[in-house]
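User: Now give one protein:

AI:
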Amino acid sequence: MPFADAVARVSAIALDLPDAFEEDAWVGTRWKIRTKTFAHVVPIEDGKPHAYATAAGTSGPATVLTFRAVGEDLAALTAMGPPFFKPVWFRDIVGIELTDDVDWTEVAELVTDSYCLLAPKKLAAAVRR
């Protein structure tokens, strides 16, 4: 999936969440609640950025989304394999390659759950799941 299309799709999901905002990241685009990133879309091209290409197991071209998960969700997503992958830089981070046939209902659930893990309790409680 082209990077710009993925950003638009994730943005529509993320910016519907209370007080969430979008910003350019060191690579790609990320969505935050206060100071915490709950979703990050990154393009992979020619094996760069290296950390993302290595974690996702692709030199690209590809577009990936990283998000947060815990407990059984983290274990299940990590064990599932492609299109999911497990980066090493945070214990609770998971990634998914955003292909043309990705299930956007599932992506919306994953982004929303990630937001709720990091948002203040009052904001997380206001989210319809």
About this structure: Residues 104-118 form the longest helix (15 residues). Residues 3-125 form a domain with the Aspartate Aminotransferase, domain 1 fold (CATH 3.90.1150.30). The two ends are 26 Å apart (CA to CA). The CA atoms of residues 69 and 113 lie 7 Å apart.
